[in-house]
Amino acid sequence: DLPQYGHKQWQAYFGRTFDIYTKLWKFQQQHSLRTSETNYLNEAYSFYAAIRGRAYYSRAAKEDRSDLMVKKLRYYARFIVVCLLLKKMKLVRDLVMELDNQIADYTSTYEPDDQLEWSLVLEEIKSFIKADGVVSVLHADSNTIVLSHRLSPLTTPPVEKSPIMNLTLQEILIVGNCNDQVKFSELTMDIKTSYPLVSACQENGDRPLKRENPHKYLLYKPTLSQVLVFLASGFKELPPAGALLLYLSADGCFSPVKHPEDSTHLFFSLYPGDLYPFTRKPLFIIVDSDNSFVFQHIPRYFGQPLIVLMSPQDVPSTFQDQQHNGSLFTLFLHSPLTAFCFICNILNVPIHHWERCQSYIDRFVTEASRLFTRCRIDSAYLQFFGDDFLRLLLLRYIFCDVVLHLHRSFKGRQFRPRCQPALPDGDLLDHPALQHLVLDLASHLEVRGHFMDSNEMD
């Protein structure tokens, strides 16, 4: 029914159509953040790339409408979020440069009240990108390679399945609440890092996944009531033999000794006891905090499988300044080799060297998986171990514990992670085969001096 002549007559229809597509994209973005289906993210990316390629906003500055310029800036910010999640870092840098120019035009033309806000947005993006490159993997031409850390058939840890391994991860709640951690939009570095941990991808897009990605909620600085509501929602949606994962990246809350009257904020903090009702179904908890160990005594009143992985409560002084750029514990769970290089002060690794080092990690994971199923261990671990995502998290946790135990800078129990129920030391965490693989990796990277020999350990 649209007229085929007169370009001005199209403007109203174009505006309405664009509003509808914007609403559609918002829905897709919310859905993709919850399900982690890369197809939805790719659709959102295609939509934004089409806007950029067709220069839909090219006349925004000429229209002399500040509201249209604000829409353009928001478009850039949202496009950058999508590209960050898809790890299209080259395009991210191009978009940041364009956004920088657009903000300069916007502020010089309109002198708006939100000038400072957009300047802060730009600084957040730049800080986020800078912090994201902890260790650079370099191509032969010295260009940085962006690696995917999503679960794939190549990274799925091997396991000898048994009937007790009957649980599958179905619902996930990821909470980010660190005040001093670098962030962009509602993505802290830990949220972005943990996001691929529980997301699978298709290798080269040629094979469908063996299973769907778990359903996710991502919460940035939520209230206590919001955390409990979303936990209850995930709890309610769990199917039979389904498991719920709660990932907490948050600052610890401590009772003031000198001024007890200042403790009102404690009423709005999350306590271990707040999680008791949710232990009626299989629950897997990861706590990354400087007060993580308070979660190690959650009782199993209902006899359901319950595991709590807790980060170290402290890091050596040489690494404390880096906490602003993301947690070391979450980095170990996300990319063990990146974390290993980081604590050994290795900032750049050629791709051929990286692939060789990754083979040591793969051998460690394979051996740890074998030991895991053969040692005397709490049955809750075996029930969760059949799920690909949770098995990968558990084996990377073991790698983290073994590495930090051997590293000279991490002497002291407060520098090591903990778990509940406790994993066996002699048969698993301190097993010579695992220690030798870590030391072999250190020798290959020529950083053997950072690690103790077995006879030096406590």
Structural notes for this entry:
This protein is α/β, with parallel strands linked by helices. The protein folds into 2 domains: 126 residues; 289 residues, Rossmann fold. The strands form 3 sheets. The chain has a 6-stranded mixed sheet with strand order 6-3-7-8-9-11, with helices on both faces. A 3-stranded mixed sheet has the order 2-1-10. The chain has a two-stranded antiparallel ribbon with strand order 4-5. The chain is globular and about 75 Å long. The termini are far apart.
Summed up:
The chain has helices spanning 10-35, 38-53, 66-85, 89-110, 115-132, 189-194, 224-237, 317-320, 328-334, 336-343, 351-374, 379-385, 388-406, 425-429, 432-444; strands spanning 136-138, 144-145, 168-177, 183-184, 187-188, 215-220, 242-250, 283-288, 306-310, 348-350, 418-420. It is an alpha/beta fold and 458 residues long.
Report strand order across the widest sheet: 6-3-7-8-9-11
Instruction: Please provide the ordered H/E string of secondary-structure elements.
Output: HHHHHEEEEEHEHEEEHHHEHHHEHH
As residue ranges, the low-confidence spans are: 203-208
Number of domains: 2
Number of helices: 15
The end-to-end distance, rounded to whole angstroms, is 81 Å
Query: What is the averaged pLDDT score?
Result: 85
Shape: globular
